[in-house]
Amino acid sequence: MAKVTISLIKADVGGFPGHATVHPQLCEKAEEMLSEAVKTGIVADFRVMACGDDLELLMGHAKGENDPEVHELAWKIFTACTDVAKVLKLYGAGQDMLKDSFSGNIRGMGPGATELEFTERTGEPLIAFMMDKTEPGAFNLPIFKMFADPFNTAGLVIDPTMHSGFKFEIWDIQDHVRVFMDCPAEMYDMLALIGAKSRYVIKRVYPKEGGKLPSEEPVAAVSTEKLYEIAGEYVGKDDPVALVRSQSGLPALGEVLEPWTFPHLVSGWMRGSHNGPVMPVAFENANCTRFDGPPRAVAAGFQIANGKFVGPVDLFNDPAYDAARDEANVIANYMRRHGPFEPHRLPLKDMEYTTLPRVLRRLEDRFERVE
Ligand code: 13P
Ligand code: 13P
Ligand code: MG
Ligand code: MG
Fold first, then answer.
1. Which of 17, 276, 285, 335 could form a disulfide with 281 if both were Cys (CB 3.0 to 4.6 A apart)?
2. What is the C-alpha separation between 243 and 184, in angstroms, rounded?
3. Is 135 in the pocket of ligand 2 (CB under 6 A)?
4. Domain 1-118, what fold?
């Protein structure tokens, strides 16, 4: 059976105003260029979305991951949208466009990308998650809960096709190495790593061998780009995206959505320098306002039909998430009251790439030795 590839590629090419939202003209430009790409056959289908100030391109095709044509298309769209952003003088026009010319793959150039290639099933639910004002490790907790926590995912206990658990691919994004871990057998080792979310991030999740689904086809994938490593300094957070498949041997849709009832603490928010809660919101509320946040998550639900998108359903546009939003606001108030104090402000190690070291350097020769 033919495989489909779903590519979710995103960039901040200018905020409106500040770092709050994406201007509608950027979405229009992206729609126009993707419509053209459908006609010329580069992609089969697409959706243009936005979360905070991040422009999100969701594309369906049959070309596999890291396809130069698909990546170049995304790069060209972000370049054209940067031009629109410059005309409108949007804030930080071209913010994530860190390289001058395209060289075959969009990874390492600034934009974030996550892709899943898989054999499409008879019924293929897929959820695209997009977050603004945080970093890739913000997905560790919810993805862990979906695929490994029996208190979240009933199927791990009661569905024989899920009972053996899943395999996790974890990246050390500092040393650029990875490890595959078997869950639940190695769950405690795995948590020792992924609890340190600024360094160890869940990159992909796979089904176990001998199960209902092909064990080599990932069922979830997360973007892991680190902007400061490309730019050498703080230019904005690495606002992450993820794709998650669901049902029939995988967590049910509701099990994929359940972790988001907990507005867990992530790093990002104002100037990429503060811890705060993730607030799950409807697309129309994905505007990063208060203290440039709080960090937002949106979820677009689809059925995939021959590489085309049926949907989206705006999955957090639901009163079932009101309590999580209220709790996020309570936590936001509490965290904000710390002002410049840790642990609201990130620890010094994580502030290395911000503007803080420049302030500290100015005080360097004021220090006197003490006993
Ligand atoms: P599936 O095994 O068909 O995914 O059914 C589980 C379910 O939907 C329960 O909510
Ligand atoms: P973005 O990473 O979303 O552009 O936000 C940057 C920022 O500094 C927010 O205060
Ligand atoms: Mg921005
Ligand atoms: Mg952003």
1. 285
2. 22
3. no
4. Alpha-Beta Plaits (3.30.70)
Q: What residue ranges line ligand 1, CB within 6 angstroms? A: 247-248, 252, 254
| Residues in a beta bridge with 244 | 127, 220
CA 366 to the chain's CA centroid = 42
Rounded to the nearest angstrom, the distance between the alpha carbon of 173 and the centre of ligand 4 is: 20
Closest CA to 110 of 293, 237, 296, 269: 237
Residue type, position 84, single letter: V
Residues facing residue 170 across a β-bridge:
179, 202
- Tens of pLDDT along 270-323? 999 999 999 999 999 999 999 999 999 999 999 999 999 999 999 999 999 999
Asked if residue 14 has its Cβ within 6 Å of ligand 2, the reply is no
For the record, the structure tokens of 177 come out as 């190495």
CATH 3.30.70 residue ranges of the chain are: 1-118
Verify whether ligand 2 is closer than 6 Å to residue 314 (CB atom): no
pTM of the complete model? 0.97
Query: Is 237 one of the annotated active-site residues of the chain?
Result: yes
Q: What is the pLDDT of residues 83-139, one digit of tens each?
A: 999 999 999 999 999 888 888 999 889 999 999 999 999 999 999 999 999 999 999
